[in-house]
Design brief:
Structural class: mainly beta
CATH superfamily: Nucleic acid-binding proteins
Number of strands: 7
Strand order of the largest sheet: 1-3-4-6-5
CATH architecture: Beta Barrel
Strand content: 35-45%
CATH topology: OB fold (Dihydrolipoamide Acetyltransferase, E2P)
Order of helices and strands: EEEEHEEE
Largest sheet: 5 strands, mixed, barrel
Radius of gyration: 18 Å
Distance between the termini: 28 Å
Number of helices: 1
Helix content: under 10%
Length: 155
């Protein structure tokens, strides 16, 4: 039987990425990513729910996030896998659990100016939006122009 653990998210970074070195010398980046979904309640009013995802990247991925100057508020496409971790809370002694998205591929959706620095504002399909694929599986990066993607959706 085949198994699949794949996550794809598009959202806004909720806090500036935190870069750390592990005790073994491996670089790690972590940040939160906000995604939103809309629905209509029983009264017909449109409601929005925001979900927060912990995103983690290792090695070269962490280097690239750092070198691009990725920061809070920027839009990002992330592709990766779900990972789970647990630890004992030192203050209460209780077991704590967290779910992370381990980033394999990402694409910066926030436009960049002529100096290569990120700009604030809306995503412009004609702008240069770099994508990076650091997966060991060799998956291609997502296309910057997703206009044709809607044609493939089954709904």
């Amino acid at each position: 039987m085949a198994y699949l653990n794949k996550v794809m998210l598009i959202g806004n970074i909720g806090k500036d990425p935190e870069i750390r070195m592990t005790t073994t010398g491996r670089k790690k980046v972590s940040f939160s990513l906000a995604t939103s979904r809309r629905y209509r309640d029983n009264n017909g009013e449109t409601k929005e729910i925001t979900d927060w995802h912990n995103v983690v990247g290792w090695g070269k991925t962490a280097d690239i996030i750092e070198s691009l100057g990725v920061r809070k508020g920027m839009s990002l496409f992330v592709e990766g896998t779900l990972t789970y971790r647990s630890w004992d809370d030192q203050a209460t002694g209780q077991k704590r659990y967290a779910t992370d998205v381990t980033m394999e591929t990402f694409q910066l959706l926030t436009p960049r100016n002529s100096n290569g620095a990120p700009q604030n504002g809306n995503y412009n399909r004609s702008s240069s939006t770099p994508s990076y694929d650091n997966s060991s599986m060799g998956y291609p990066p997502a296309s910057a122009d997703s206009a044709d993607m809607d044609d493939d959706l089954p709904f």
